[in-house]
Amino acid sequence: MKVLVVGANGQIGKHLVSFIQENKNLEARAMIRNEEQASFFEDLGAETAVVDLEGDIDSIAKAAEGVDAIVFTAGSGPHTGKDKTIMVDLDGAIKTVEAAKVAGVKRFVMISSFDTRRKAILEAPESFAPYVAAKYYADEWLRGTDLDYTIIHPGGLTNDKGTGQVKAGFDLEIGKIPREDVARVIEATLENESTIGKEFQIVSGNTSVNKAIQSV
User: Fold this and answer.
1) 78-82, 92-96, 187-191: which range is least confident on average?
2) H-helix or E-strand containing 207?
3) 107 — phi, psi (to 5°)?
4) Residue 83 pLDDT class (50, 70, 90 cuts)
5) Which of 131, 136, 137, 149 is labelled catalytic?
6) What is the mean pLDDT of residues 86-93?
7) Interatomic CA distance for residues 161 and 48, integer angstroms
8) Per-residue b/e over 64-89, b at no fewer than 16 CB within 10 Å?
9) Which end of the chain is more exposed for a tag (fewer CB within 10 A), N or C?
């Protein structure tokens, strides 16, 4: 399976491309913003596609040509304004979904926020609410398609070393999870067709990634 990783130069994206390249059943194409970011992925033996997520749908669709799945891991980051949140986390995500349709790619994995229900928007701190709202509408857009989607809702992200042990489900108590473990969950999701049409939250736990994903 060839996988287009959108937001590959992010921290989750880098872990994911590394894991994919180590997996004999998977192959990565890293979608990056500029050519200067390519060397990391080329050293892993991964293909690269230089595309501005704030560009048009056709350019994203071209990057997706010939792949079997798309993973959206892009994010505007915590230090950007509402404008970037709209352009990346909302518009960028929706354009990637539409690009999947254009390119004929059915499998789509969306990395969302821990809780994107309407109540979560209303209860979020003022500075975080635009991000949750953006993820809410991007998730809704994806649910309304006929793509073979999975939506993953990770808890608070850390740069701790992954343990390979998580808890997966819904209505979980908020917790943290290393970005490395999120990448492992994405890898397992791509290999498990039972996750199609599902969404789930993940935090650190005591269950192996593969077993946790099989149980959702």
Assistant:
1) 78-82
2) strand 207-208
3) -85, 130
4) confident
5) 131
6) 94
7) 26
8) beebebbbbbbbbeeeeeeebbbbbb
9) N
Backbone angles phi, psi at 154, to 5 degrees: -80, 150
- CA 139 to each of CA 50, 56, 72, 209: distance values in angstroms, whole numbers, following the listed order: 25, 20, 11, 23
Q: Which two tokens stand for residue 111?
A: 């990395």
Walk me through the domains of the chain, giving residue ranges and CATH numbers.
2-214 (3.40.50.720)
Across all residues in the chain, what is the average pLDDT?
A: 95
How far, in Å, are 25, 33, 48 from residue 29 at the CA level?
A: 14, 13, 5
- Cβ atoms 132, 124 nearer than 8 A: yes
Q: Quick one: tokens of 132?
A: 């949750």
Helices (H) then strands (E): counts for the chain = 9, 11
Q: How far apart are CA 185 and CA 88, in angstroms?
A: 23
Dihedral over alpha carbons 136, 137, 139, 143 (to 10 degrees):
130
User: And the tokens for 211?
Assistant: 């077993």
What confidence tens digit (pLDDT) does each residue in 156-183 have?
Answer: 999 999 999 999 999 999 999 999 999 9
